[in-house]
Every structure is written in structure tokens, then in C-alpha cells.
From TrEMBL:
GO terms for molecular function: GTPase activator activity. The keyword Calcium does not apply. This is Rap ran GTPase-activating protein putative. The keyword Metal-binding does not apply. It comes from Entamoeba histolytica. It holds the Pfam family Rap_GAP. InterPro entries: Rap/Ran-GAP_sf, Rap/Ran_GAP_dom, Rap1_Ran_GAP.
Length: 523
């Protein structure tokens, strides 16, 4: 493999094993991912393949060419695993030599496919091996596995299909420290305080960030401006199917109000007829091929559905404060609160800030002088904290400016200083219908010498459990607590967006957008 910044991967067999060994060049390359900067997020950089003169064929991107019919080989070498290992050793392999990196990649691949996740849309493709969803954390790994497929052992490594996220439930068992227990008695809220609070039937507890594949641009990489892509639109049902046929299977992607889904079909199935029968649709679709306007809008929609920016509210409650108005009225805070904020994020000036600012006013400074910002480097997420005491304290008791921002945050940190064990947070005091999840943090000492925090989580009962789960409510003031809390916040919002009112809002919005895309593409 050439020592270049961009590494080119090839499928191959050892020449001494088969005289007919062939080299199939994959038409993509990926950047060295050893470092990730703020301006250079981890992503696949496609090579521009040699294509026909058609304008649609000039785009760069992935292809399903590896599934096209290829000469049969007599060798029984496990070329599937070997080619994947060869491609992945420099991406996920750990070690200083090729042997060490290959061995490391092999162990990770075994683990990835040892306990497979179920597909969201089940089909009848035989001999399919799917990964465990929790191991899919890098877009480039997904693509390399897909492009390294061979059928020499009559099996398919399916990294295309959308996979189900395991679901846990609230057990109703908790030992509250800073949250009032009464709020959960009528099943309006769920409480998490320790290892007993959630079921452990599956491996959801070990996920880093859930549904990370929602951040991948599958349509852009594999379908956009590809001459072989076929489109069917269902105007009445607000559905768009796009797929490519290969010699082995069909790769399908659906755009529906409920979201984007991917699945594979046997090569001989009629995609549109299968869809109509499976979903019991009473509508004849319209076939559309090489419609550039349609493809542009689908790529735009896919990009819009990827969330990389997050905003979370922060309320400060002094000892003895129990009401929403009291929390929103605080302008002066204890040193332990600012010590906590400096641990989880960095204080920035709002004026002239040129990155994500979560709706604050960076041009005129009308929403305060400072705010707190964090960057989750692993997935290039930008995070803004709406800290109530830093927002303008408008005259009057309603505190509209503060409530305008924090009241529209799904997840809110409540920093609750306590007088005694009865001085707890009651989520029922919050009037916002948008706030659904409260992560309540209490310092062991109400001064800057504090090094211990107690954490409880309380959320609307419609919200499902989200990782990382609380093993205990006690945390130390260190980087591990920051990392835990950041993941908890991110997964809280990503979970909420698939629950209750947020799903309904998303479905309505997507339906409107997809119907507009269909109607405009048929003009």
C-alpha cells in the first residue's frame, strides 16, 4: 500500500494461491483519520471514478460495483474477511506494525459481527451478516466494509440496512437524592438514580452515542447523480424510493415522513411492488430516473436531518429555592456553580462569535455578554449552554428573555444547591411544555472546595432510557464526569427526538417537505 496521505484500498488474493487472481480497484479513498480538527470533521473523501460522458455520471461517490458479476475463483481463501482486514487495519487497527494492526482489526471485526442487531426493515435476503449497531461509530469503517464485500463464501456483510436500537424501560426503582419522589408516583415522570432504575435486557448501556449512523450521508455517497439509481415517488403517501440493482442484491433507501430508512432486497424482487405489498399501499408510484432536481432536493433533505449542533439549558437553584421563578431570577451564583460550568464547557464572548451559538445574538450582544460552549471532538458536535444567570435579566417577574431560550431547550441541567434532604427539585414547577429531561446536579459542598457531585435524572415518562446509565449518583470533579455528562446530554436529546411530541412534529414537517419535493420534481 503506497505511503500517501490518501490510502487506496484494493480487493485482492495472493497470486500464489490462484493464477486468475484479480485486483479490483475501489473507486474511493479516505483521509488519514489519526487526528480530527475543528475545521476538518471525520468524513469519507470519494475519488472521482472514470465514468461515461453522461453529465449524471460525472459525480464522485461510492458505488455498489463490488456486487457486480465477477469471475469465479477456485480458491477457498476467506477473501471476504481478509480484504476487509487489509482495508481496515489502518483505520481501526491498533499497533506499530502491520501485523499488530491487522490482528487488532480482526478482533474488532469479530466483535462487531458477533452479536448482530436486527434490521429495521426485514427482507428475505439469505446469508446476511449484520454488525452490532453500537460498534458503528465511524462513517469510513461502514463504507470500507461495504466496498470490501465478496460472495466467495456465500455471505453478505450488510452494513447498508438501518439497524434497530435496543430499547430498555424504566423500572420504577430509585433512591432519590435531589429530586422529589412524588413526581413519579402518577407515572407522569420517570426517575433515574442508580443501576436499579433501568432494565438491562440489552446492550444499550454500552453505547457511546446512539444512532450515530443517522449522521452518515448514505444518499449523497451512493445514490446522488449515479446513473444506475432508480427513483419511484408516491405523491399521496409522501414517499420516495431510490435504489440500485446489482448482480447480487438491491440497495434501497426510502424517504418517508417517519424518516430515512435503508434495506436490501433479493436481486429478482420488484422494488416498488414489494414496497406496495409490504406496506399495503393503494397507490401507483411514478417512476423517475436521472431527475437532477429531485436528487438535489433529496441530498439537501438528508443533510438537514443530520444534527451536529446542540443546545442545552442550565438553571441555577440556590439553597431553599423550589420554584421556577426563583431559579430564573438568579443573577449571582456561588463559586461552586461556576466551577462546575468551567468543568463541562468553556466561557466565551457572544459578540462576533462565528460558530454555532444556539440562537444567541452574536452580532449585537442583546442576549448577554458571555455564554458557555463545548466541542465534542469525536463526532464534531458543537454544544451551546443557555446559562440562565448569563442571559439578560429583563425587568419584571416573568423573565421572558431567559425563558425564551431555556424554555425551548429539550434537555436542561438543574444545578441544585441543597439545605437538607427535603430541599429537592420538583419538575412539576417548570411550566415549559418543551423541557422534557432534567439532569439535576448537586454539589456535596456549596463552595469552591467541592470535589463531589450527586446526579439524578428526571424526565417525562414518554422518554425512553438513554445511555450512559447511572451506575451510581456520585461523581468526582474530573474529566470522566465531564465526558459522562456530555454523552448523557447528547443521548438525552437524540432519544427525545424519537419520542412523543417530537416524533409527531418531525413526521408533520417531513411530510410537508417530501410532498413539496415530489410536486416540484414532477413539474
Amino acid at each position: 500500500m503506497a505511503s500517501q496521505q490518501k490510502k487506496r484500498f484494493c480487493l485482492f488474493k495472493k497470486k500464489n494461491e490462484d493464477k486468475d487472481a484479480m485486483i479490483v480497484s475501489l473507486n474511493f479513498s479516505i483521509n488519514d483519520e489519526s487526528t480530527v480538527s475543528n475545521d476538518s470533521p471525520t468524513h469519507l473523501t470519494p475519488r472521482t471514478p472514470k465514468t461515461p460522458k453522461s453529465s449524471l455520471a460525472k459525480s464522485s461517490g461510492q458505488s455498489f460495483a463490488v456486487f457486480e458479476d465477477t469471475p469465479k475463483h477456485k480458491s477457498t481463501t476467506n477473501s471476504v474477511d481478509f480484504t476487509m482486514l487489509n482495508a481496515l487495519k489502518d483505520i481501526i487497527g491498533v499497533g506499530t506494525t502491520d501485523i499488530e494492526r491487522t490482528r487488532s482489526a480482526m478482533e474488532q471485526l469479530k466483535e462487531m459481527f458477533a452479536s448482530p442487531s436486527d434490521a429495521v426493515i426485514s427482507t428475505l435476503v439469505p446469508n446476511v451478516l449484520r454488525p452490532n449497531k453500537k460498534y458503528i461509530t465511524k462513517e469510513s469503517v461502514y463504507y470500507v466494509i461495504m466496498d470490501s464485500l465478496r460472495d466467495s463464501q456465500n455471505k453478505i456483510y450488510d452494513c447498508w440496512s438501518s439497524l434497530q436500537l435496543p430499547i430498555e424501560v424504566w423500572t420504577g426503582k430509585y433512591t432519590c437524592f435531589n429530586v422529589i419522589m412524588d413526581c413519579a408516583q402518577e407515572k407522569e415522570f420517570a426517575i433515574e438514580t442508580d443501576i436499579e432504575s433501568t432494565s438491562r435486557n440489552f446492550d444499550l448501556f454500552s453505547y457511546d452515542i446512539i444512532n450515530i449512523d443517522d449522521d452518515f450521508t448514505f444518499f449523497k455517497q451512493f445514490f446522488y447523480l449515479q446513473p444506475k439509481t432508480i427513483f419511484y415517488v408516491f405523491p399521496e403517501n409522501a414517499t420516495i424510493l431510490c435504489y440500485q440493482k446489482t448482480q447480487k442484491i438491491q440497495f434501497v433507501m426510502s424517504f418517508r415522513p417517519s424518516g430515512l430508512r435503508r434495506f436490501i432486497l433479493p436481486k429478482n424482487d420488484d422494488c416498488s411492488k414489494w414496497w406496495i405489498k409490504t406496506l399495503n399501499i393503494n397507490e401507483k408510484p411514478i417512476k423517475s430516473k436521472n431527475n437532477i432536481k429531485l436528487q438535489d432536493q433529496l441530498m439537501k433533505l438528508e443533510t438537514q436531518l443530520i444534527v451536529k449542533n446542540y443546545k442545552f439549558g442550565v438553571l441555577y437553584a440556590k439553597p431553599g429555592q423550589k420554584t421556577e421563578d426563583e431559579m430564573y431570577s438568579n443573577t449571582e451564583c456561588s463559586s461552586v456553580f461556576w466551577k462546575f460550568m468551567d468543568l463541562i464547557a468553556s466561557k466565551k464572548e457572544q459578540l462576533n462569535w462565528n460558530r454555532f451559538i444556539g440562537g444567541l445574538d452574536s452580532k449585537n450582544g442583546r442576549t448577554g455578554e458571555y455564554f458557555y460552549f463545548s466541542f465534542y471532538e469525536k463526532f464534531s458536535y458543537e454544544i451551546v449552554f443557555h446559562v440562565a444567570p448569563l442571559l439578560p435579566d429583563n425587568e419584571g417577574s416573568q423573565k421572558l428573555e431567559r425563558k425564551r431560550h431555556i424554555g425551548n431547550d429539550i434537555v436542561v441541567i438543574v444545578f441544585k444547591e441543597m439545605v437538607d434532604s427535603t430541599d429537592t427539585f420538583d419538575p412539576r414547577c417548570i411550566t415549559s411544555h418543551f423541557n422534557h429531561i432534567f439532569i439535576v446536579v448537586t454539589p456535596e459542598k456549596n463552595d469552591e472546595t467541592n470535589e463531589i457531585y450527586h446526579v439524578n435524572v428526571v424526565c417525562k415518562s414518554e422518554i425512553l432510557p438513554f445511555p450512559p446509565f447511572l451506575e451510581t449518583s456520585v461523581f468526582h470533579h474530573d474529566i470522566h464526569f465531564k465526558q459522562f455528562l456530555t454523552r448523557k446530554l447528547l443521548n438525552a436529546e437524540r432519544t427525545a427526538m424519537n419520542c412523543g411530541i417530537f416524533v409527531n412534529n418531525s413526521v408533520k414537517s417531513n411530510e410537508r417537505i417530501i410532498k413539496h419535493i415530489i410536486s416540484s420534481s414532477l413539474e
